[in-house]
Specification:
With 482 residues, the protein is of the alpha/beta class. It is 34% helix and 15% strand.
Length: 482
């Protein structure tokens, strides 16, 4: 048989549609090579535009493990009064918990381990564990009525970041990259950094799904920055190769990829071309970003002593500010270790020490530079902790709390959010969200709204269905909007 005819007979369905979409692939390539990077937030596509955006960029300070709202931001004097008493049955009806929780008749209420104080003109109650956050209370909005649907870490984190408990869906940073484009051709639109407190016994793992682009084109995936001399993998030239040689090599590869793109129209080829180009430009932009020697002594002291150590939460907070200054759209910081099943009286202190000062410094630093107004900062975890103890009252060094999805607290600052307020409330022992409840999908809808996007309109068709970050749920939390 003629080999050309044989090849045509063996074209499969995917190849057929790929070939028929060559025009789309070429258009995508043009945008990848620079046109899209000049995206203007004021010129959002009419299909997703809802209001003028208040925020241009987002910094998510995600605290893996479930920070205990009852020890940090949700002041409940009633817990102290009822210390050691059993949880009333009325609070438990219809509630789901992790399998690590004790039997219902052993669930004894546990008082917060440290006292609270009121801060600022707002009079916000903040634990002594978080004094630096207390000092910026008038700049932030506490949401004390968050609730979610998942009781274990990975599904709950996936749910918070992607709107679905299953791994592999596009995360918020990828959706924003897809919907808004880039503001800097030389740095990623979506950047990720991870950290963990020293000495923690927490076994939290940073899965790649936490910054996945899912079924969106893979160029929208988060780029992970690491500690050390090479913050981003595979962008440095190998020994013996200079920039001119690298440029010639990339030009040759691009020509081959463009020919293949014209042949099959696969958008992932466009992504590959763009990634090579981005890596080449990042050879100069990333070292400059990571070099903090030009920061003033006052700025470094503001973030705390660990800012001088690469890979710490403090250093990552400073790099987050430097990234948004340079046009990165979404910066996701993930700090593990908040899983205090047996370490409320020990490791919780380390977590707060490592994250409290840098988080507050980031907000203050952005504010002093005029960036907070259009930068949305979010401090959050995947869920809270139970009002009842996990462990024995007789062994204080091993006190803990289990996972708790029914009520928890997050805070937000800048980017069009009302400062100095507390929205919503949990009940008298912090068990259930009862006033102005905010579901995770509501928070996601609100974040998109602040960026000028209608969460119901930002969609992507995959396997015959139009998907979105908020699935088929979510309402904008209007009372927190400035």
């Amino acid at each position: 048989m003629d080999p050309l005819l044989e090849r045509q007979y063996h074209v499969n369905r995917r190849q057929f549609f790929s070939k028929s979409s060559t025009g789309i692939g070429v258009a995508a390539l043009a945008s990848l090579l620079g046109q899209e990077s000049k995206a203007d937030d004021a010129k959002l596509p009419a299909a997703i535009k809802r209001v003028a955006p208040k925020a241009k960029r987002v910094i998510l300070l995600f605290q893996n493990g479930g920070p205990t709202h009852l020890e940090l931001f949700d002041y409940k004097p009633e817990l102290k009064k009822r210390h050691g008493q059993s949880v009333p049955a009325s609070y438990m009806e219809g509630k789901r918990f992790s399998t690590m929780s004790a039997a219902a008749d052993k669930r004894k209420l546990l008082s917060p381990i440290e006292p609270y104080k009121q801060y600022g003109k707002s009079g916000a109650w903040v634990s002594d564990l978080m004094p630096y956050t207390g000092k910026i209370a008038d700049d932030i909005c506490f949401i004390k009525s968050m609730y979610t649907e998942q009781v274990n870490h990975a599904p709950a984190i996936n749910f918070f970041l992607s709107g679905n408990q299953l791994a592999g869906r596009p995360t918020a940073g990828a959706w924003l990259s897809y919907g808004l484009g880039s503001m800097n051709e030389n740095l990623p639109t979506f950047a990720v950094m991870t950290s963990i407190s020293k000495g923690t016994t927490c076994g939290q793992i940073f899965y790649d799904s936490y910054w996945s682009s899912g079924f969106l084109p893979s160029r929208h995936q988060g780029v992970k920055f690491r500690a050390g001399e090479s913050p981003v993998l595979y962008i440095n030239n190998p020994k013996g190769m200079n920039s001119k040689l690298r440029r010639n090599m990339l030009d040759g590869i691009a020509q081959l990829n463009e020919r293949k793109l014209a042949e099959v129209g696969d958008p992932e080829i466009s992504t590959r071309i763009a990634q090579y180009e981005m890596a080449y430009r990042m050879q100069t932009s990333v070292p400059e970003l990571a070099d903090i020697s030009g920061e003033s002594k006052a700025t470094l002291e503001q973030y705390g002593p660990s800012v001088n150590e690469p890979g710490t939460f403090a250093r990552n907070c400073l790099l987050a500010r430097r990234l948004v200054e340079r046009g990165t759209r979404f910066v996701q910081l993930m700090h593990a270790g908040w899983d205090q099943h047996r370490s409320l009286t020990t490791e919780l202190y380390n977590q707060c020490r490592d994250t409290d000062q840098p988080s507050a410094a980031l907000v203050s630093d952005l504010k002093s530079r005029g960036l907070l107004e259009d930068t949305l900062v979010i401090w959050a975890g995947e869920f809270g902790r139970t009002p009842f103890i996990q462990g024995s009252f007789d062994n204080r060094p091993k006190w803990g709390r289990d996972h708790h999805p029914h009520a928890y607290t997050i805070w937000m600052a800048g980017g069009g959010v009302k400062p100095g307020i507390s929205h919503g409330a949990s009940d008298d022992i912090g068990f259930n969200a009862v006033e102005d409840k905010v579901h995770v999908h509501d928070l996601q809808a609100t974040i998109l709204h602040l960026l000028g996007i209608d969460h119901e309109k930002l969609t992507f068709k995959f396997q015959g269905r139009h998907y979105r970050l908020t699935d088929v749920h979510g309402h904008v939390v209007k009372p927190i909007l400035a």
